């Protein structure tokens, strides 16, 4: 899993029928050190939204076979599975939603 920030949406009128019920969002990976910052190297990617998030939110994303939904014929490679409320590294608060 990785932490990312939702930076946009994807609108597609023609897509695999298994994707019709999912919102497609653009996610940018975040690096966790003392605070959440944009990760160097990895580029943004599209993920399906399983929890109903909005643009700008920090999310937890699962990728690969773990991103598959209940129907194995739905072509997914990344899925947003949680909204991040806070991240603590040691005694430091790296991120807090509030």
Topology readout:
Blueprint (H helix, E strand, L loop, with lengths): L1 E9 L12 E10 L3 E3 L6 E5 L8 E6 L14 E6 L2 E4 L2 E5 L2
Parallel strand pairs: 4-6
Antiparallel strand pairs: 1-2, 1-5, 2-3, 2-4, 5-6, 7-8
Structure description:
The protein has 98 residues and is mainly beta. It has no helices and eight strands. It has a five-stranded mixed β-barrel. It is elongated. The chain starts with a strand and ends with a strand.
The total tally of domains equals: 1
Integer-rounded radius of gyration:
14 Å
Order of H and E elements: EEEEEEEE
Task: Give the overall shape, derived from the CA principal axes.
Answer: elongated
In total, how many beta strands?
8
Write down the CATH topology: OB fold (Dihydrolipoamide Acetyltransferase, E2P)
- Uncertain runs with pLDDT below 50, 5 residues or more? none
User: For this structure, what is the CATH homologous superfamily?
Assistant: EutN/Ccml
Look at the structure and give the mean pLDDT.
87
The main pleated sheet reads as: 5 strands, mixed, barrel
The CATH class designation is: Mainly Beta
**Tally of DSSP helical segments:** 0
Helix content: under 10%
CATH architect. name: Beta Barrel
Task: Output the structural class.
Answer: mainly beta
Intertermini distance: 23 Å
Q: Per DSSP, what share of the residues sits in E-state strands of 2 or more residues?
A: over 45%
């Amino acid at each position: 899993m990785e932490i990312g920030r939702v930076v946009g949406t994807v609108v597609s009128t023609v897509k695999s029928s298994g994707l019709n019920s999912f919102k497609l969002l653009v996610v940018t990976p975040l690096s966790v050190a003392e605070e959440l910052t944009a990760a160097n190297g990895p580029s943004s990617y599209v993920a399906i939204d399983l929890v109903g998030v909005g643009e700008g939110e920090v999310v937890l994303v699962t990728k690969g076979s773990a991103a598959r939904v209940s129907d194995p014929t739905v072509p997914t490679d990344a899925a947003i599975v949680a909204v991040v409320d806070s991240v603590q590294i040691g005694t430091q608060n790296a991120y807090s939603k509030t």
